[in-house]
Amino acid sequence: MTAHSHAKPDLTKNQGLVFGALTGAEGPLTAYAILDLLRDDGFRAPLQVYRALDKLVEIGLVHRLESLNAFVACSHPVDCGEHKTAAFAICEDCGKVDEFAPDAALQSLQAWSRQEKFALAKTTIELRGTCANCTTS
Amino acid sequence: MTAHSHAKPDLTKNQGLVFGALTGAEGPLTAYAILDLLRDDGFRAPLQVYRALDKLVEIGLVHRLESLNAFVACSHPVDCGEHKTAAFAICEDCGKVDEFAPDAALQSLQAWSRQEKFALAKTTIELRGTCANCTTS
DNA sequence: CCTATAACGTAACACTATAACATTTCGGAG
DNA sequence: CTCCGAAATGTTATAGTGTTACGTTATAGG
Ligand SMILES: [Zn+2]
Ligand SMILES: [Zn+2]
Ligand SMILES: [Zn+2]
Ligand SMILES: [Zn+2]
To answer: Is A109–B105 a contact, with Cβ atoms under 8 angstroms apart?
Structure first.
């Protein structure tokens, strides 16, 4: 592993291609949209995309948007270290996604989990609505 | 249809069947699981299920779980009136879902929306983990 | 080199959801 | 009662999303 490369050092070819497609996109992409984008790069089957996505999500470079069945590149700096649970505000007009850290909401949900003795593993928070840009325009 | 069914009065036949399937189930059901449950009642195509589900979700009797692509009957009393956004704790062990009102979390997310001028339309909050019952057993 | 592991390629399949179009049901206007 | 429009329904086909299965290839460590 090279010393201080701020690029993703350990991505394989397919993972790099998928991650590139996501970072190059304005908004989230479905797995099949990614597949179409990467046909010229040799992608032929959805599994190639899903396998890369699985790894990228596991690493934390990509998030899955459950309410869209789509994926988006993490908007955090590469080396922000511990990437806590993120929340997403999805504009239903322009399709853009704003990722943010819902600290207070998370604390409240963790408190609920403690009280109910629910062993929390993963939290999904997705907001749907219209972004400021689309409201004013 | 019998006289004084204490079921919701304004449901159509298909809506009633689908709602009955969901209330009779231990946990959430996918649309196709509902379809299979209702084959003996004349259901033949997914659209029959999806149409009923659309209406039931619109009415507020049923919730869609985005992270499961499944549906669950609302656990609130039928006439609880304004049904605010609900949150769901999904046990990955037994599959049961606990619906609750995440008031504090919602307030925090609404505050974020105000600050970002994001016109919030719908909020999805889904917790994954292991319920108390499955942890102790 | 040898081997274990991860990544990759390909085809087939399973699951989730909607489009399109015809038909039926039902309540209100005339 | 009859007519009409809206809502609900029935049916077929198709689109979109995700996984299983199996075989091959690249990679790193001993
Ligand atoms: Zn992120
Ligand atoms: Zn927008
Ligand atoms: Zn509810
Ligand atoms: Zn459980």
So the answer is: yes
- Quote the number of domains for chain B: 1
* Domain range for A112: 13-132
* pTM listed for this prediction: 0.92
Average pLDDT, chain B: 91
Distance A39 CA to ligand 1 centre (A): 27
Q: What is the CATH number of the domain that holds A97?
A: 1.10.10.10
Report residue A87's pLDDT band, with 50, 70 and 90 as the boundaries: very high
Q: Is the pLDDT of residue A123 over 80?
A: yes
A131 pLDDT more than 90: yes
Which residues are CB-neighbours of A68 under 8 A, at least 6 positions away? A28, A30, A90
A72 domain residue, yes or no: yes
Residues ≥6 apart with Cβ < 8 Å to B18: B34, B38, B49, B52, B53, B56, B62
Question: Could you tell me if residue B6 is inside a domain?
Answer: no
Is A134 annotated among the ligand-binding residues? yes
Q: Is residue A18 part of a domain?
A: yes
Q: Which long-range contacts (CB under 8 A, 24 or more apart) does B37-42 make?
A: B41/B17
Interface contact A128-B122, CB threshold 8 A: yes
Chain A, nearest residue to B130 by Cα: A119
Min Cα distance A44 → chain B (Å) is 26
pLDDT at position B6: 42
Residue among B82, B101, B103, B67 at smallest CA distance from A88: B67
Question: Is residue A74 part of an annotated ligand binding site?
Answer: no
Q: Is residue B137 part of a domain?
A: no
Could A102 and B98 be called an inter-chain contact, meaning their C-beta atoms sit closer than 8 Å? no
pLDDT tens readout for residues B64-74: 999 999 999 99
Which ligand is in closest contact with the Cα of B96?
A: 4
